[in-house]
Design brief:
mainly alpha; 39% helix
């Protein structure tokens, strides 16, 4: 079945935009960014550090250019720190898993070269991240 141009309804951006006020506090702006970034990250196929970095940067830049952050007191330096933390958190959540052999199978041959290395190898903890507990 083929659709004609006349069969496709006109879509207005306003229908998908939040109608409430812009974020007034730093906390509400961070929550707004976190919501947008987390939901968009779920649509990334085969996440890599580069894809995650691009996604986070694009969403933050889009919010700035759309003037969504004009009414809160976030500085560009704080936005950079927030974006760094979002990238680190997403990479921690979305990293690939190694393929374990099924139970009862013993793998004695050379490693399968088609396996991707864990993307966390390329991930560095942001300088501003809290120390990791040894407990």
């Amino acid at each position: 079945m083929r659709l004609r141009e006349d069969d496709v309804p006109e879509v207005h951006e306003e229908s998908f935009r939040y109608g409430g006020p812009k974020p007034q506090t730093k906390e509400s702006a961070i929550v707004s960014l976190a919501d947008a970034i987390e939901s968009a990250s779920r649509s990334v196929e085969k996440p890599t550090p580069q894809k995650i970095e691009t996604l986070v940067n694009e969403i933050v830049e889009e919010r700035i250019s759309d003037r969504q952050l004009d009414e809160c007191d976030l500085t560009l330096g704080e936005l950079k720190t927030i974006a760094d933390r979002f990238r680190f958190t997403l990479l921690s959540m979305l990293h690939t898993r190694i393929a374990y052999p099924k139970s009862g199978q013993k793998h004695t041959g050379p490693r399968d070269e088609t396996l991707r290395p864990d993307v966390m190898v390329a991930t560095r903890r942001p300088e501003t991240a809290p120390p990791v507990s040894a407990a």
